[in-house]
Specification:
Layout (H helix, E strand, L loop, with lengths): L3 H6 L4 H7 L5 E19 L5 E23 L4 E11 L5 E10 L4 E5 L4 E5 L30 H6 L1 H4 L3 E7 L2 E9 L5 E10 L5 E15 L5 E20 L2 E11 L5 E12 L20 E4 L6 E5 L17 H25 L3 H8 L2
Parallel strand pairs: 6-14
Antiparallel strand pairs: 1-2, 1-13, 2-3, 3-4, 4-5, 5-6, 7-8, 8-9, 9-10, 10-11, 11-12, 12-13, 14-15
């Protein structure tokens, strides 16, 4: 593990990063997990009427996450499916998500409940409902909801963030790195801590972010001490050996803000660093049950590529075609809130992956 001086002075080695990125160059995995929200209790609002509201004490499962990911990073191909539950403030549980694929030629998507599979230009945006992440930086980066991160860009950002490293501790086969972040007036704001497992190819074991509870200053105005509050965000990762490589097995992501929530994802790997069926990255590999058509809008106008007849649609899975107004509002709120969470912590959390990535690439 590099020293703090090396962390602030070492320049990225792009050649070694290109070679070691092949550790997870191609892969295919099923994903299953759960979403947990605070338990609901009866309370009264300001008008005295009965209303369900969250108790931020105990978390309970509101449903299962189902997903799938496939990737061929060298060819610029990614497939990501996600179907997960959410709950409105009134207590209604609904599901959202969909299927998404990206190649150098096109973006293909079908949102949950949509009757069409849509093909668009490759430069388009990843749908907000997708919450796509890059499996290569799990555990070192709070990335759900982000477009798949490009590791070389993370390495390029390494020098910029390295001066914030405040402490490095290595003992018993683990290395702990702490980052301290301050505001423009150099007052501590939050601290990020990440633990790497040396025997597991430096995959992160735990990432946590803590906010400042209080600060004490000396008479001359300099900082005397900082009291840290409880952990606001945490990512716990378990890895396993698959085809002679360490890969994510289970990740638990916790958020202690308002509202409090936790997600746990379990990975079942089916392929790693072997050819991936190209069909997975096109509409032919999508779920076509209950679909009406495949539409291509890359030419500036809608072109029908395929229409499905009733016999082809017989395998319908009962998609939520008409979510309630409350569910629609919650989906919009969740997307906005998620992007605010990510945007507010991107400088902190994305770059935490860099140390782990650099070690795995050596």
């Amino acid at each position: 593990m590099p020293s703090s001086k090396q962390l602030t002075s070492t320049k990225p080695d792009h050649n070694s990063s290109r070679n070691a990125a092949t550790h997870l160059a191609l892969g295919e995995s099923k994903v299953r997990g759960v979403v947990e929200n605070p338990t609901l209790g009866e309370g009264e609002d300001e008008e005295g009427s009965k209303k369900k509201r969250a108790k931020d004490v105990v978390l309970e499962s509101i449903g299962e996450i189902q997903g799938f990911c496939a990737f061929d990073f060298d060819s610029g191909k990614v497939r990501f499916d996600r179907d997960e539950p959410a709950r409105t403030p009134e207590g209604e549980v609904f599901r959202f998500g969909g299927q998404f694929a990206r190649t150098q030629d096109a973006l293909t998507e079908r949102g949950r409940g949509a009757s069409t599979i849509v093909i668009s230009s490759p430069g388009g945006k990843v749908p907000a409902w997708l919450h796509m992440f890059d499996v290569r930086v799990l555990g070192g980066c709070y990335v759900l909801g982000l477009e798949t991160a490009k590791l070389p860009k993370l390495v390029e950002s390494f020098e910029k963030d390295a001066p914030n490293v405040s402490e490095i501790i290595s003992a018993d086969g683990e290395t702990v790195v702490k980052w301290l972040y301050a505001d423009e007036e150099k007052n501590p704001v939050h601290r990020a801590t990440i633990c790497f497992r040396e025997a597991e190819d430096f995959w992160p074991k735990r990432l946590e972010v803590t906010k400042v509870a209080s600060t004490i200053y000396k008479p001359d105005g300099s900082l005397h001490s900082t009291n840290w509050g409880s952990v606001q965000q945490a990512v716990d990762l378990e890895v396993e050996r698959f085809r002679d490589e360490w890969v994510p097995k289970k990740v638990t992501i916790s958020f202690a803000g308002q509202p409090r929530w936790r997600q746990t994802l379990n990975f079942t790997w089916e392929k790693l660093n072997e050819p991936i069926d190209d069909k997975l990255f096109g509409w032919e590999g999508f779920d076509q049950s209950d679909a009406d058509a495949v539409i291509d809008n890359r030419l500036g106008q809608l072109v029908t590529v395929k229409r499905f007849n009733e016999s082809q649609k017989a395998g319908a899975k009962g998609r939520d075609k008409n979510p309630s107004d409350g569910a629609k509002a919650e989906m919009k709120r969740r997307s906005s809130r998620w992007m605010l969470i990510v945007g507010g912590n991107l400088a902190v959390l994305v770059l935490l992956a860099v140390v782990a990535v650099r070690q795995r690439w050596k």
